[in-house]
Amino acid sequence: MRFLKNYSLLIVVALIVSACGQKEGVYFVNLTDGQEVSSTVLVEMGVNGMEVEPAGEINKGKGHHHIIIDGGYMKTGETIPANETHIHYGKGQTEATIELSPGKHTLTLQFANGIHQSYGEAWSKTITVNVKD
Fold this sequence. Notes:
Blueprint: H1 2-19, E1 25-28, E2 35-37, E3 40-48, E4 51-52, E5 62-69, E6 86-88, E7 95-99, E8 103-112, E9 124-131
Parallel strand pairs: 2-9, 4-5
Antiparallel strand pairs: 1-3, 3-7, 5-6, 5-8, 8-9
């Protein structure tokens, strides 16, 4: 009988942990590290632990996505530049299409506050994709 109580407790704990979902941070919804893709890439962006909102104001626990092509995460507080390799999604987008040349590329998903200041490494995710010719 005691075994069943302990076993039942383990099941309840497992269900609670499972219900809590993924750990905090950003993630690629539809891409995996090392995936082969075409030159036109649909990127679906996700976040756990913060809320997506358009750029403009700094609100605790909120921000928006950026994709950094062939570069790593930005340090906490650094302003993310807007150029051909640092793409801003300041309207609160969670999906975008990007164009990549053939070959290997890194994609870094970086979450930032309303004035494009990075939330740092903990709120970034880098993967490598292989663009087929």
